[in-house]
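Notes from hallway chat w/ T.B., transcribed later so I don't forget. T.B. wanted the structure written out for a chain they're using in a teaching module, and asked if we could keep both sequence and structure tokens in one place. Agreed to drop them here.
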Amino acid sequence: MDAAIRAHGGLVLQFIGDEIEAGFGAPIEDVRHADAAVAAAREMGQRLDAWNSVRRSACKTELRHGIGIHTGTVIAGNIGNTERMSYALVGDAVNLASRIQALNKDFGTHMLVSGATRARLSSTVGLEALPAVRVKGRSAEVAVCAMR
């Protein structure tokens, strides 16, 4: 999965258990970061489909994933001290992306993008608007779209 992220110009920030935190458009600005993130997510879906095909033929349980993509302003940089430092993205946009990812379970989807990301895409083909939802830490509802 990390190869798909890197192939589209993304930066893998960290692995958290079975999750991957990645960013697009930082540290080097990319005006097409939303398109790159969606392309990476679609490639990740294709890679998972191929992996699951092999698992099915071996009578093994298929794996699922949930991807959440949000576009917003973050603080990006090295965080820590001289003993332990890492490059990180912090801010409300990071938290909202995580909340959107978690919505995949509620919607029965695999990939969701926020309305903010949808607005930045050069093409919205394959996106299906879902009902706006309220997520933890937000008073206003969030627009989300499923990626097909």
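Follow-up for T.B.: The helical segments are 2-7, 33-57, 92-107, 115-120. Might be a good example for the class.
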